[in-house]
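Schema walk-through. Below, the input block comes first and the output block second. Nothing else is stored per chain. Lengths vary across the set, and this one has 221 residues.
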Amino acid sequence: MAENRTFLEVIAPNVEDAVARGLFELGVDEADVDVEVLDAGDPAEGRQSRVRLTVRPIETQPEDPVIAVARTALQELLGKLRARGRIVAQWDDESDGEEERPLVLNVKGDDLGMLIGHRGETLSALQYITRLIVAKRVGKQINVVVDIESYKSRRADQLKRLAKRLADQAAQQGRTLSLEPMPPNERRIIHIALRDHPRVTTESVGEGRARKVTIIPKNRK
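--- output ---
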């Protein structure tokens, strides 16, 4: 809506044109305004029509209390890190059935790369601390996922494509293939992406930071 105006008076040759012009200038639909005809006009007298459009207030629902707590907690942490960003929070409808539905806090803004860190290590720490604060404030554990400019979503998509490509390769060659070492959350993406694959299975091997996923053909040559 232009300049956030709540009402507008428009003069036009007739009422219909005046309303149409007003809706265009306000950037709203007719269902979003109340129309008052101030002067119907009179073509015989050369008098144009004048109407007033008043935008109806938008009814907003109160924010989910858990979302409010999580948003505040993350905003406080961003402030301590002197990072500025807008937090988009929502419950994720996509779940693998093994964990409760996650609450995703996606931070949007400019120059936020420092919040991701090398291979997402800073982001993982930020998520861990946010989860601790939220759990303490709401009195229970919440599956909070912190993301920065959808970094995790993009990374997940990349890992799924990689997993399927290597699975096909492992099945065709009849040999086990290993991925690079990954943190637990990324290994889990690989396992879930391939758990229903008809020709391969997956297994995590190694210890600590060297732990990685192997893709194993079900029918080795």
